[in-house]
């Protein structure tokens, strides 16, 4: 049976786990205007960030990407990432485990 939820029902900020099962980990990221998540990495994951509302600048390594609602960025989590909210913003972030070679 599918698991269903609403992003509006999630209360934790800035990170709210969408599902209890964390494979792949799915998070609602909610930032207020001028809020920044410090530079960090997710080396075990490929990351997909989908902006739902607001405007977000995402710094990946030395590059900055301006994202608006509907924009999706996919990247290797083994690089520095730092989202910054230009205005109040919400994004859905999926951390897909990297496949390991056997």
Automatic annotation (TrEMBL):
Stored InterPro entries: Cupin_2 (IPR013096), RmlC-like_jellyroll (IPR014710), RmlC_Cupin_sf (IPR011051)
Domain Cupin type-2: 33-84
SUPFAM superfamilies attached to this UniProt entry: RmlC-like cupins
Residues in coiled coil: none
Family annotation (Gene3D superfamilies): Jelly Rolls
Source domain of life: Archaea
The protein's name: Cupin domain-containing protein
Organism the protein comes from: Natrinema longum
